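Good morning C.,

I know you're traveling, so I'll keep this short. The sequence:
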Amino acid sequence: MLLFMQKGHLQIREEAQKFALEKGDCLLLRPDRTHAGTAPVEETVTYYWLHFEIEEDAELAIPPCSTVAHPDILADYFRRYISYQSMGLLQSRQCRILTMLILTEVAHHRKDPQGVSRNALANTAMDYIRNHIQPLSTSEIACALGCNPDYLGRIFKRTYGVTVTEAIYRQRIILARQLLHEQDLPIYETAFNCGYDDPAYFCRTFKKYTGMTPMEYRRKHSRHHVVQKEI
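The C-alpha cells, ready to paste straight into the viewer:
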C-alpha cells in the first residue's frame, strides 16, 4: 500500500520500524507486515492511500519513505483516480496507467538535504544513544552523525515522540534497572556505569522514572537472594 500525506502529521510503524510523516511524504507499506499508529493524532490529517500490485520487472526505484518532488502533481493523479472511480470510468487499463503515473512520481522523490532520510537519521541517533553510556547531548550526537543539531532534534521528536534528551534519560534508566536487577554493585558504581557522575542526581532521576529509589528497586527485583541451607 502507498500512503501519501496531504495535511498534518502522522506517526506510524511497520513492525518495529517507526515513521513520522508530514505533508508531501510518501510511505510504502508491505501487505505481509503489521502496521499501527504510534502516537495520537492531534490535528486534522488528510492523506491518500492506494493498494496496488506491480510487475517484478517494472523499473521503478521507489524508496520505502520519501518526500516527493512534486506533491501537487501527485495529488492531482490521486484526485483523477478517485474521480474516475466515482464515475465508473476506472477500467483496468486506466487503473494501470494512473497507478504507474502515481508510482513514477513517487520514484522521483526529493533528496534530503542532510543526505539521509529523516527516519533513517532518527533511527541511527537512537542506536547511537543505546550504544553510548557516557554523558551525551543532542549537539554531540549530531556532530557524530554529521548533521545539524536543531534538525536532528526536530526529526527525532517527530519519529519517536520524545526529545533526544528524554531518550537519553530513558535509555540510562533502562540500563540502571538492568544493572540493579543483575548485579550487586554499590549505587555510586551503578550510577557511574550509567553515565552519571553524581549519585544523588542519579537517585532522583531514577525515582522520577520508576517511582522507587535504586535501593528500593533492587530489594524488589534483585536476583540475589538468601538461600536457607538445611542443617
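Safe travels,
E.
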